[in-house]
Amino acid sequence: MNIIVTGGAGFIGSNFIFHMLKKYPDYRIVCLDCLTYAGNLSTLAPVMDNPNFRFVKESITDREAVYKLFEEEHPDMVVNFAAESHVDRSIENPEVFLDTNIKGTAVLMDACRKYGIKRYHQVSTDEVYGDLPLDRPDLFFTEETPIHTSSPYSSSKAGADLLVLAYHRTYGLPVTISRCSNNYGPYHFPEKLIPLMIANALNDKPLPVYGKGENVRDWLYVEDHCKAIDLIIHNGRVGEVYNIGGHNEMKNIDIVKIICKELGKPESLITYVSDRKGHDMRYAIDPTKIHNELGWLPETKFADGIKKTIQWYLDNKEWWKTIISGEYQNYYEKMYANR
Length: 339
Ligand code: NAD
Ligand code: DAU
Prior knowledge:
Layout: E1 2-6, H1 11-23, E2 28-32, E3 53-56, H2 63-73, E4 77-80, H3 87-92, H4 95-115, E5 119-125, H5 152-171, E6 175-180, E7 183-184, H6 193-202, E8 207-210, E9 216-218, E10 220-221, H7 222-235, E11 241-244, E12 249-251, H8 252-263, E13 270-273, H9 288-294, H10 302-315, H11 317-325, H12 328-336
Helix pairs in contact: 1-7, 2-4, 4-5, 6-8
Bound molecules: nicotinamide-adenine-dinucleotide and 2'deoxy-thymidine-5'-diphospho-alpha-D-glucose.
Nicotinamide-adenine-dinucleotide (NAD) binds at residues 6-7, 9-13, 33-36, 38-39, 59-61, 81-85, 100, 104, 123, 125, 157, 180, 182-183, 189.
């Protein structure tokens, strides 16, 4: 099996590559990533010398480069993680989200049509369903929940999902889509809630909580997400959407307090800042379909996963300190200075 994994120098893609190379020693994995601010080649250092792994620095929006790669590799599958992934950045500058998330997806699928493929898998998000009210804990996102997006990011991911389903219906492309809830774990870029709070707390810097901190996210350890995608690409039904989530809803403020406690830092570091525009209130996945059809269940409890994650950031200070000392400083100052 030869699999092109796009966006493999980012958070979830890299964890997926590690999982696949370990579990399937006879598979070839080709990572296609253009190394945006969120892509980090040092993340892939542990597999760079693996003879079954190849890294290619190109953009999924570059049709010529993508077709050339397909001619060289004749992939059996494509798993598309490549995306602009941060909601706050999409609010500041939507355009690149449309290019990468929508156009890039179309280019990849055109290549799949042209050269033939066993499976194209689109890594999508629960954010395409919009949000749920806080006072209706009985409601969850199912695969039938209507698309109802809030941010330029989620709209671009929803646009891509619709294209994927259209390529299946119109051209018969063998596709699957997964829509996962919030991931956490190693190699999570420090702009996102959990790694940002860990890094700031370790540096005794303010912990910026948007609004009242009451927004709820449904957290899943990244390895559990990778295992779910592994099951879908091998055993999932073509043309289907699978929701992935572990019934682990938590308020943002509670996550931040847990991080303070685990690191022995005072809650006085918590600073309430102005809210995100269009901020989704609550995400909550109903994972019944993937459980019933593919037997998937999350394996990591949040209490253990957050400890492992914090320990990883303590053990890998160089990884995130290098990131936050560069261009990220300008981003951080611009985003948080006047909040
Ligand atoms: P990330 O921002 O950490 O990584 C994205 C990667 O894609 C980076 O390596 C970047 O260099 C690469 N990339 C961006 N534009 C590219 C382009 N034009 N061509 C090639 N490579 C490009 O993102 P992540 O958090 O790992 O998310 C991966 C995927 O999973 C995304 O599609 C995202 O929408 C989806 N997702 C994320 C979460 C989450 O909680 N992080 C949850 C559900 C779904
Ligand atoms: O639900 C899946 C989605 O989860 C993915 O599709 C996205 O790619 C991923 O980035 C994530 O989106 P969120 O917007 O939920 O994640 P983020 O880490 O940016 O924020 C989580 C919550 O924390 C959200 O309610 C906003 C809040 N927040 C975030 C930051 C960065 C803060 O209160 N302060 C912060 O500084």
